[in-house]
Design brief:
With 575 residues, the chain is α+β, with helices and mostly antiparallel strands. It has 3 domains: 217 residues, BirA Bifunctional Protein, domain 2 (2-Layer Sandwich), CATH 3.30.930.10; 143 residues, YbaK protein (Alpha-Beta Complex); 102 residues, Anticodon-binding domain (Rossmann fold, 3-Layer(aba) Sandwich). Helix content is 27%, strand content 28%. The strands form 8 sheets. Strands 3, 7, 8, 9, 10, 11, 12, 21 and 24 form a 9-stranded mixed β-sheet that branches. Strands 16-14-15-17-20 form a 5-stranded mixed β-sheet. A 5-stranded mixed β-sheet has the order 28-27-29-30-31, sandwiched between helices. Strand 22 and strand 23 form a beta hairpin. Helix 2 runs antiparallel to helix 5 and helix 2 crosses helix 10. It starts with 20 loop residues before the first helix and ends with a helix. The relative contact order is 0.14.
Length: 575
């Protein structure tokens, strides 16, 4: 491709509304343009990268035995009502009516549609195992779209669905997809980690996320420094053997009411009362679809809403607003406590051994000291309800853990019979008995993978694309476009590389050298070949690697073969 023919509107300045580096660089490098909030147009350069990722995905899906289909983006409400998700999925589900008044939605995911297909077409145990996948746009009406392709409303996704006779077969299908996902992200040249994850709105019994490691990642990853345990922060388990029970050996004291005017936060309360956060209990009021609930955690811990949802077995959980807190506790936010509450109370395990606790007094400007469970309040259930901290220990081996940042690019689930039961997707086994199909589902955010690659691979000058997903493998920069020898050498090399299958961008613009260098660095093409009058007189070309900045003068003769070898080496080195 010649630069003068390429639609590549680069930007010199960072767009004001671009918060993260991938969003900034994709806009500046002319890869995407915003249409409206959370919705983007892919320009030629961006689409080339997207297609590269899609090609890798398709190859590995086919290798794992999956078959490609394409399902409608528009889905009828009846399917979602059958699965029970029409009313519980939330406002992310964009609902609308057709001209006949029938309800539809834009698909945020396709479990209902694929299950409907299977229940109509699969009859016998002979029809399985089966794995179907698609690469298609999804729509989720995010409350706050941000970070460009990292959290948009319309986005490209690969979703696959496996169908098996039993749990044993489902485990094999899950492992096949787990292995395929690892190969996909290895081939994309990314550094990533597979972590245990919460199943969320999709449901099911078990799941893993594939996380690209990046300091700018929006997700926290907990991993052991000794064993292979890893989980995202929502899923990460607290090791119960390391709860500091010995700190609460003092005998119970009588409960007292203490005036704490305008003292609300943990820091303010502990400072005012001269206690430590480990002596304080926070009372958080949540609303569920059925009833409000109070969740107790120690003062130096944070509630994990995903764990609370799982313990309560509810689909929706929201932190109560100030009016609700006032109604249920009799006090404004910051003064809630467990004593005297008439709603269900559950507590984190770290609260169980505590004695002589400090907590809100359910009265404005009042806290209680010397609070003890059994004497002053009761707890319905103790469970792991909090976020892990760096001082916790591995729940598998008890060794030191570390917390890193990551970007979710893939998510795989063991669904079991959640959807097949709801939609009556059954088959006849070898004995003629009707059984439910056992399912799994497997997603990859295609655009998100590209954005994550940029978050992981960039410098102050722009993107550093891994060779396997770079829009072009080589960029040729003739520095003097009015010098016939320079132009001829550039054209010759361009044609040589193109004829041998290389993906080459020839910067044939009549621009200053500095402009060409800046644009080449910005768009992140792995190999840059510079052709100038001075080096050409000596029969040499300058070859530079974008990732390392390593520069080498090479003979003009045979330069094409050397560059082709470099391309192969760079592809192999990132796999």
């Amino acid at each position: 491709m010649r630069y003068t023919k390429l639609f590549l509107p680069t930007l010199r300045e960072v767009p004001a509304d671009a918060e993260v580096i991938s969003h900034q660089l994709m806009l500046r490098a002319g890869m995407i343009r915003k249409l409206t909030s959370g919705i983007y147009t892919y320009l030629p350069l961006g689409l080339r990268v997207i297609k590269k990722v899609e090609k890798i995905i398709r190859e590995e899906m086919e290798r794992a035995g999956a078959q490609e289909v394409l399902m409608p983006m528009v889905q009828p409400s009846e399917l979602w009502e059958e699965s029970g998700r029409w009313d519980v999925y939330g406002k992310e589900l964009l609902r609308f009516k057709d001209r006949h008044g029938r309800d539809y939605c834009l698909g945020p995911t396709h479990e209902e549609v694929i299950t409907d297909l299977i229940r109509k077409e699969v009859r016998s145990y002979r029809d399985m195992p089966l794995n179907l996948y698609q690469i298609q746009n999804k729509f989720r009406d995010e409350i706050r779209p941000r970070f460009g392709l990292m959290r948009g409303r319309e986005f490209s996704m690969k979703d696959a669905y496996s169908f098996d006779l039993d749990e044993e077969g489902a485990v094999k299908s899950y492992q096949a997809m787990f292995d395929a996902y690892n190969r996909i992200f290895e081939r994309c040249g990314l550094y990533f980690k597979a972590v245990e994850a919460d199943t969320g709105n999709i449901g099911g019994s078990f799941s893993h996320e594939l996380m690209v490691l990046a300091d700018t990642g929006e997700d926290a990853i907990v991993s052991c420094t000794e064993c292979d345990y890893a989980a995202n922060m929502e899923k990460a388990e607290v090791n119960p053997d390391y709860i500091e029970k010995e700190e609460y050996e003092a005998p119970p004291a009588p409960m007292e009411k203490v005036s704490t005017p305008d003292v609300r936060t943990v820091e303010e309360v502990t400072q005012f009362l001269s206690v430590t956060p480990k002596q304080l209990v926070k009372t958080m009021i949540f609303e569920t679809s059925s009833e409000p609930v109070a969740v107790l955690v120690r003062g130096n811990h944070e509630v994990n809403p995903a764990k609370v949802k799982n313990v309560l077995g509810v689909a929706n959980l929201e932190l109560a607003g100030e009016e609700t807190v006032l109604k249920l506790t009799g006090a404004p936010a910051g003064f809630a406590g467990a004593v005297g509450l008439s709603i269900k109370i559950i507590a984190d395990r770290a609260v169980e051994p505590m004695k002589n606790m400090v907590m809100g007094g359910n009265e404005k400007d009042v806290h209680l000291i010397g609070v003890n469970r059994g004497t002053d309040f009761e707890v319905s259930e103790f469970a792991d309800l909090r976020l892990v901290t760096s001082s916790d220990r591995c729940p598998r081996c008890g060794k030191v853990i570390e917390i890193k940042r990551g970007i979710e690019v893939g998510h795989i689930f063991k669904l079991g019979d959640k959807y097949s039961k709801a939609l009556s997707a059954t088959y006849l086994d070898q004995n003629g008995n009707e059984r439910y199909v056992i399912m799994g589902c497997y997603g990859i955010g295609v655009g998100r993978t590209v954005a994550a690659a940029i978050e992981q691979n960039h410098d102050k000058n722009g993107i550093i694309f891994p060779m396997p997903i770079a829009p072009y493998q080589v960029v040729i920069l003739p520095l003097q476009m009015r010098d016939s020898d320079v132009v001829s050498a550039a054209e010759t090399l361009y044609n040589q590389l193109i004829s041998q299958g290389a993906e080459v961008l020839l910067d044939d613009r009549d621009e200053r050298a500095g402009v060409k260098f800046k644009d080449a660095d910005l768009v992140g093409i792995p190999i840059r070949v510079t052709i100038g009058k001075k080096s050409l007189k000596e029969g040499q070309l300058e070859v530079r690697l974008r990732a390392t900045g390593e520069t080498e003068l090479v003979p003009r003769e045979g330069a094409d073969r050397m560059i082709l070898d470099m391309i192969k080496d760079l592809v192999r080195s990132r796999q």
